[in-house]
Amino acid sequence: MEEQELMLKLGMYEQQIRQLQQQFQAVDEGITELTSIDFGLDEIKGSTGKEILVQIGRGIFVKAEIRSEDLIVNIGNKNLVKKDVPETKRILREQIVKLESVKKELAEKMDEIQEEAKNMILAAQKE
Asked: What is the pTM assigned to this prediction?
């Protein structure tokens, strides 16, 4: 394999790995956010009538009173349904499991690409 061709292929591998790393990071951030929400839901149990701070935007909060432990949950396609805390926690855990699976697939794909690049370099060195 010519050096120019090798460098081109290695550049493509590097670009693919960067894209996968960005996806991996986004998935990891999603897992962190869902886990944080899951823990936050524990604070709602038994809190009816208490005043809390609710984030309405980035760094902007408003005081609100918890009137009910029922939650309005987006289940996809802007469909909102009423769920209690345990049901919502179950949905969050299912989403976390799915994201963990995606994260594992991304890590495996990065490993495959790195292995291919390594093998290509070793083959080129033998020539």
From this structure: 0.81
